């Protein structure tokens, strides 16, 4: 009995909150509490004990830290709500930067400003209903296309693919998307052309492929000439000269998630030969 | 005669408006009882106290509801489907395994949660010896079988499902032992999640 009690005390003591800076890049699980850097300094390694003597004892410098996806503010600490790697980005100007959890999931939750690929499911009056993979279909007005007026309606049918961005996306309202940017130009958005193949991958892979220094896309571009559109909701549209090439590209991109870079280079060299 | 008793201890919601647990001083809800209502059997009685449901699905659902941050996804339904692949024949072990599977599935789906949870079973045999994680043979011969769901923040109790006779002191002892055992389960969760993220 005494053994069990001591073991229980040990495991309870191990759940003390850790400093966010010490956990950067490591896997965190839901339920963990993280201390922000300024609190870390104040609390010190020994817990409630000596406080560092500061000349300006009254005013504590409050740094504004942004809580990204996977974290929630809980009192004056951060509570982890998703499993993944903890990341931090230094701020450009003043402030404490952004902390977020890099998680892998398949389900998309609409976020304002994200560019996504949607499928038109219904046309009712002036609004198209577009399926973006979230819990609700997004609404798209027919006037939100470049050069669209009441007389000059865009040519959009049910079943078409749309590349657009969210202007309204929160948990309380139906998401709304548009196919123009703030200046009124299409900027690549709008109805996606005929043919090609649309397939689904995990959200983490999309973010990896869209990173500025991603070699996968450069290598794929050297293989065949292709058109490719990435949606942040996990959908990729790909089109090459022949159907066979399109299918090969789709298979490579889906498999990229599980392959190491050496395996990938092998496959690319084998394809380049044939 | 065996008595089956399912109790759910719900965690209070963050805003403090959750249902209040029954403390020792407050009054219980309305009781209603009717006797000798059937003519054929020798004796019969009907007892109504709150809701008379008891099922494994409800226990798992209540545990998940206590932990998942539902306020971030209004007007959305989260469905958990559990498929039994191989059942060694023990009911209590199945419940603990279902709880662990549900927790891992929710983490894999990226549903925001305030803690992880796990299920641990223990059995008390006739001389009072405590057996953690009993086999189905030990379960059949046990005097009482208890299953607990614990969270990983402070090892708090989320759900308890018990079958059999046991004293108050034995309940506390079982709870302490399962709390210590749950840290092994949580360490296994952490290792398997780390392995998954190390591949990328």
UniProtKB/TrEMBL annotation, chain A:
<dbReference type="InterPro" id="IPR026699">
    <property type="entry name" value="Exosome_RNA_bind1/RRP40/RRP4"/>
</dbReference>
<keyword id="KW-0832">Ubl conjugation</keyword>
<keyword id="KW-0007">Acetylation</keyword>
<dbReference type="GO" id="GO:0071038">
    <property type="term" value="P:TRAMP-dependent tRNA surveillance pathway"/>
</dbReference>
<dbReference type="GO" id="GO:0000467">
    <property type="term" value="P:exonucleolytic trimming to generate mature 3'-end of 5.8S rRNA from tricistronic rRNA transcript (SSU-rRNA, 5.8S rRNA, LSU-rRNA)"/>
</dbReference>
<dbReference type="Pfam" id="PF21261">
    <property type="entry name" value="RRP40_N_mamm"/>
</dbReference>
<dbReference type="Pfam" id="PF15985">
    <property type="entry name" value="KH_6"/>
</dbReference>
<comment type="similarity">
    <text>Belongs to the RRP40 family.</text>
</comment>
<dbReference type="GO" id="GO:0000177">
    <property type="term" value="C:cytoplasmic exosome (RNase complex)"/>
</dbReference>
<dbReference type="GO" id="GO:0006259">
    <property type="term" value="P:DNA metabolic process"/>
</dbReference>
<dbReference type="GO" id="GO:0003723">
    <property type="term" value="F:RNA binding"/>
</dbReference>
<dbReference type="InterPro" id="IPR049469">
    <property type="entry name" value="RRP40_KH-I"/>
</dbReference>
<keyword id="KW-1017">Isopeptide bond</keyword>
<keyword id="KW-0963">Cytoplasm</keyword>
<dbReference type="GO" id="GO:0071051">
    <property type="term" value="P:poly(A)-dependent snoRNA 3'-end processing"/>
</dbReference>
<keyword id="KW-0694">RNA-binding</keyword>
<dbReference type="GO" id="GO:0071035">
    <property type="term" value="P:nuclear polyadenylation-dependent rRNA catabolic process"/>
</dbReference>
<dbReference type="Pfam" id="PF21262">
    <property type="entry name" value="RRP40_S1"/>
</dbReference>
<feature type="domain" description="K Homology">
    <location>
        <begin position="196"/>
        <end position="243"/>
    </location>
</feature>
<keyword id="KW-0271">Exosome</keyword>
<dbReference type="GO" id="GO:0000176">
    <property type="term" value="C:nuclear exosome (RNase complex)"/>
</dbReference>
<keyword id="KW-0698">rRNA processing</keyword>
Automatic annotation (TrEMBL), chain B:
<dbReference type="InterPro" id="IPR001247">
    <property type="entry name" value="ExoRNase_PH_dom1"/>
</dbReference>
<feature type="compositionally biased region" description="Basic and acidic residues">
    <location>
        <begin position="1"/>
        <end position="13"/>
    </location>
</feature>
<feature type="domain" description="Exoribonuclease phosphorolytic">
    <location>
        <begin position="54"/>
        <end position="112"/>
    </location>
</feature>
<dbReference type="GO" id="GO:0003723">
    <property type="term" value="F:RNA binding"/>
</dbReference>
<dbReference type="Pfam" id="PF01138">
    <property type="entry name" value="RNase_PH"/>
</dbReference>
<dbReference type="GO" id="GO:0000176">
    <property type="term" value="C:nuclear exosome (RNase complex)"/>
</dbReference>
<keyword id="KW-0698">rRNA processing</keyword>
<dbReference type="GO" id="GO:0006364">
    <property type="term" value="P:rRNA processing"/>
</dbReference>
<keyword id="KW-0539">Nucleus</keyword>
<feature type="domain" description="Exoribonuclease phosphorolytic">
    <location>
        <begin position="116"/>
        <end position="179"/>
    </location>
</feature>
<dbReference type="InterPro" id="IPR027408">
    <property type="entry name" value="PNPase/RNase_PH_dom_sf"/>
</dbReference>
<dbReference type="InterPro" id="IPR036345">
    <property type="entry name" value="ExoRNase_PH_dom2_sf"/>
</dbReference>
<dbReference type="GO" id="GO:0071028">
    <property type="term" value="P:nuclear mRNA surveillance"/>
</dbReference>
<keyword id="KW-0271">Exosome</keyword>
<dbReference type="InterPro" id="IPR015847">
    <property type="entry name" value="ExoRNase_PH_dom2"/>
</dbReference>
<feature type="region of interest" description="Disordered">
    <location>
        <begin position="1"/>
        <end position="23"/>
    </location>
</feature>
<dbReference type="GO" id="GO:0034475">
    <property type="term" value="P:U4 snRNA 3'-end processing"/>
</dbReference>
<dbReference type="GO" id="GO:0016075">
    <property type="term" value="P:rRNA catabolic process"/>
</dbReference>
<dbReference type="Pfam" id="PF03725">
    <property type="entry name" value="RNase_PH_C"/>
</dbReference>
<comment type="similarity">
    <text>Belongs to the RNase PH family.</text>
</comment>
<dbReference type="GO" id="GO:0000177">
    <property type="term" value="C:cytoplasmic exosome (RNase complex)"/>
</dbReference>
<protein>
    <submittedName>
        <fullName>Exosome complex component RRP46 isoform X5</fullName>
    </submittedName>
</protein>
């Amino acid at each position: 009995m005494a053994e069990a009690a001591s073991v229980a005390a040990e495991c309870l003591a191990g759940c003390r909150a850790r400093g966010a800076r010490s956990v950067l890049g490591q896997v965190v699980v839901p339920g963990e509490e993280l201390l922000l850097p300024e609190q870390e300094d104040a609390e010190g390694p020994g817990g409630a004990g000596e406080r560092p003597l500061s000349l300006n004892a009254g005013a504590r410098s409050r740094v504004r830290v942004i809580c990204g996806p996977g974290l929630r503010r809980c009192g004056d600490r951060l509570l982890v709500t998703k499993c993944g790697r903890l990341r931090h980005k230094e701020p450009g100007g003043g402030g404490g930067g952004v902390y977020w959890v890099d998680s892998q999931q398949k389900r998309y939750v609409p976020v304002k400003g994200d560019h996504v690929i949607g499928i038109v499911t219904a046309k009712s009056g002036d609004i198209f209903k577009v399926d973006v993979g979230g819990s609700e279909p997004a609404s798209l007005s027919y006037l939100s296309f470049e050069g669209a007026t009441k007389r000059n309606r865009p040519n959009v049918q049910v079943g078409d693919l749309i590349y657009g961005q969210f202007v309204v996306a929160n948990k309380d309202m139906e998401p709304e998307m548009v196919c123009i940017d703030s200046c009124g130009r299409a900027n690549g958005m709008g109805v996606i052309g005929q043919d090609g193949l649309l397939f689904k991958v995990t959200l983490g892979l999309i973010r990896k492929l869209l990173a500025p220094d991603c070699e996968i896309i450069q290598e794929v571009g050297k293989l065949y000439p292709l058109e490719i559109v990435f949606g942040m909701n996990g959908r990729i549209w790909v089109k090459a000269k022949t159907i066979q090439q399109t299918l090969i590209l789709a298979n490579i991109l889906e498999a990229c998630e599980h392959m190491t870079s050496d395996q990938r280079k092998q496959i690319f060299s084998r394809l380049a030969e044939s | 005669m065996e008595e089956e008793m399912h109790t759910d201890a719900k965690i209070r919601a963050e805003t403090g408006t959750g249902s209040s647990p029954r403390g020792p001083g407050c009054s219980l809800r309305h009781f209603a009882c009717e006797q000798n209502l059937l003519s054929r059997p020798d004796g019969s009685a009907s007892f109504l106290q709150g809701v008379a449901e008891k099922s494994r699905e409800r226990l798992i659902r209540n545990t998940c509801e206590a932990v998942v941050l539902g306020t971030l996804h209004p007007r959305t339904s989260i469905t958990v489907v559990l498929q039994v692949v191989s059942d060694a024949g023990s009911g209590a072990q199945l419940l603990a395994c279902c709880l662990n599977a549900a927790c891992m599935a929710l983490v894999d789906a990226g549903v925001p949660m305030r803690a992880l949870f796990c299920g641990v079973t223990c059995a008390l045999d006739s001389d009072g010896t405590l057996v953690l994680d009993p086999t189905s043979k030990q379960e059949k011969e046990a005097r009482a079988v208890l299953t607990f769901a614990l969270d990983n923040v402070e090892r708090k109790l989320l759900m308890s499902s018990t079958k059999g006779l046991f004293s108050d002191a034995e309940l506390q002892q079982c709870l302490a032992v399962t709390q210590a055992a749950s840290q092994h389960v949580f360490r296994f969760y952490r290792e398997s999640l780390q392995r998954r993220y190390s591949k990328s």
